[in-house]
Design goal:
Blueprint: H1 5-18, H2 22-38, H3 58-65, H4 68-75, H5 86-98, H6 103-123, H7 132-149, H8 158-181, H9 186-206, H10 210-234
């Protein structure tokens, strides 16, 4: 039956507006594939995964992804370093990123994981666990997200870079608060920040792409300012 052009355009807009987001489709595909595997069917997307990027064998991740326990671990911000399910959470995250079918989806997922690491940092105020491993995970997530963003065409980068910028601002403020709120761990936190600043300086010098170097130098400046301010309050020289 013929439909007027206006009707077809309206229907097309409605389809786009109500279509599930790519991240949702990707997560659903992983879950359905895991359930297929549990019922005896072989997984169909080994070709999507690189052995170099998956932290655990895919079969283990698929089995875990179909369980309610793993769904809780993957979704909960309270599952942080030291929690029995934290390894499961990170394994499912790694497999999900590795299986992302496009660079754009991979970059969005890396940015989402960086934001998740920031939320895990907040949990450190209520838990008596060593903060450095969580801080290292947060910094590593920011670097991976930045690398993924700069593998995209320039027109697709801005939204990802904005998310990374906000996450890094959050991390910097949290690091500063942790040194104040957890004086027993202040020395460890300071050493982590010193090492991180030194590593970022080395990397900035090695980068050839001007835009990428500028983004990293902006992060570096924020961290260095916080570190110098904290060291000044303790009377310790910055370097």
């Amino acid at each position: 039956m013929y439909q007027p052009l206006k009707t077809r355009l309206t229907l097309a807009k409605l389809r786009r507006a109500t279509a599930p987001r790519p991240e949702f489709r990707h997560a659903l595909a992983l879950r359905l594939e895991a359930e297929r595997f549990l019922h005896g069917a072989p997984p169909r997307f080994f070709w999507l995964l690189s052995p170099q990027t998956v932290a655990v064998p895919l079969i283990i991740v698929l089995v875990l992804a179909a369980s309610g326990t793993t769904s809780y671990a993957y979704a909960s911000d309270s599952v942080t370093d030291g929690h029995p399910l934290y390894g499961v959470k990170r394994a499912v995250e790694g497999a999900s990123v590795a299986a992302a079918p496009t660079s754009a989806m991979k970059a969005r997922m890396e940015a989402q994981l960086a934001e998740r690491r920031m939320r895990e940092l907040e949990q450190l105020f209520d838990k008596r666990v060593a903060p450095v491993r969580t801080m290292e995970a947060a910094d590593a997530a920011l670097e991976r997200a930045g690398d993924a963003a700069f593998r995209l065409p320039p027109t697709q980068r801005p939204q990802i870079l904005i998310r990374i910028h906000r996450a890094d601002q959050h991390a910097t403020r949290t690091f500063e608060l942790l040194m104040v709120e957890r004086p027993d761990d202040a020395a460890l936190i300071r050493r982590h920040m010193e090492a991180n600043v030194a590593r970022m300086r080395e990397r900035a010098l090695a980068l050839q792409e001007a835009e990428r170097r500028a983004v990293l130098e902006e992060r570096l400046e924020r961290r260095a300012q916080i570190l110098e301010r904290l060291l000044a309050t303790t009377g310790t020289p910055a370097y």
